[in-house]
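Structure request: GGDEF domain-containing protein, Cryptosporangium minutisporangium.
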Amino acid sequence: MMLVVAVLATGGLITSAAFNTVDRSGMRDAGRLMDRYADDLSAGVSDRAAHYGDILHVLAAAVGAQSSLFSDDYARLTAGLESARLPGVAGISFVVPATTAQLGTVQQNWRARGATGLMLRPAPGKAEHAFVIFDRAFGGNAVVPGLDVTHIPQLDNALRRAWQGHTLAVSSAFHLVRDQKLPEQLRQSSIVFAEPIYTTQGSALPDRFAGWIVMSVRGQDFLSQILLDRGQGAIQASVTESDENGAVLTAVRPGQRAQQGSLTRHRTLFIGQRRWQITMWPTTRLLESTDRGMSWLTLAAGAVLTLLLAALTGILAGSRSRALRKVDQATAALRRDIAQREHVEARLREREQQLQHLAFHDPLTGLANRALFYDRLTHALTARPERLVGLLFIDLDGFKQVNDELGHHAGDTVLRAVADRLRVALRAGDTITRFGGDEFAIILDGLATAAEARTTAERVIADVQVPIDVAGTQARVSASIGIAISRAGAAADDLVRDADTAMYVAKSNGKNRYVEAGLLT
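Returned structure:
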């Protein structure tokens, strides 16, 4: 009897310990899974916001490049934007600044440019205004032209941030003007992305501020699509403006939120000069996908096994001990083997990624090399032949002098600095290549007109000629650029040859300039 009691007591303790161990293991698995979903979701929010910012940046640059913007021009520039590819986007507006004294002039000017019947409605008590001139709505109500958006504090604050910071700004959450006709329960907490527009006044004058491109985004739709793509229905999330009034964007997918406070996750993102805190909670679906239910199965199995062991302990005591030792040893050996194999596989994957990167990128600047350049240029010319493809071939003027006077280390510093400036100056979809030595090449895919290539060349020339600090010494280089635009039947080598020839003409004509291949005689 004492032996049976001892077996029951020992079995009970072991079963309890196994239950706790398996339960903690299940919680760790759920935590790791929650961490993965949290990272994926925060990355998805960041990527989606960056994508919308890129769209606004390109659209602002296109509007700024217009010598005189008409309503037809704005409709053409926004015609390619589709609501299916812009989840949550309610509309994109063109907004211009004006003072009270300028109301008549601004109204008459934009009426003449196609804003028929435009009536500016300034907010009372303000000397400076911001009026909606053109609006492209996506599946909803359009904003009536002439609205002064400075009466909306959140939007007014975002416009001022964009103007003062010369870059994209995001507002805090509020209800959109275009949603005012919706029932109260259907209005979403929303935000706007605001991108400043600058027009070029010539090389001798600074760019002139001309207004904003404003994208209205409904928060629930914006986050829900990302949750659907990245969360797979396993989590719920909200975005909190932790630094301004605690405004919240919420996305709740179907499913019951699990009451597990330890699995709640927080991530902080910086979007458009604003700090977002994303809070994510697990649903019961996430817990069901882990092995947490095994803890109760372990408890039941342990209880049954304990009873059996108590009945058979006299007969099977020795065999049980030996069997358990062998199981433990085999399990430990298997775990060590699995861990070692996973470590080796991880190292192999990491090495493969490094080799892949080295095969297609320049080791000094990190830019694409010739192999990747020709692959992307050939793809751009053949995948969609109807699209304009521009090629800028760049040679640095004065680079040899920097090498001779300051040494090759200084030359490497200059090349890296030029590469960094090109990354900042160009669109995210453009391919920048170090062609060799002090030569660079840029593929401009999907140009609207050849003039965009010239505008890009001017921007590159201006950025490159800014002095570069090399250990306290100011190194100066400039850029001679040859431009070639794709034509019917042209191959990659044809475009490279034309751009290279144009570049040499630019160097012969005094350097620090660009020459377009199509204008050579």
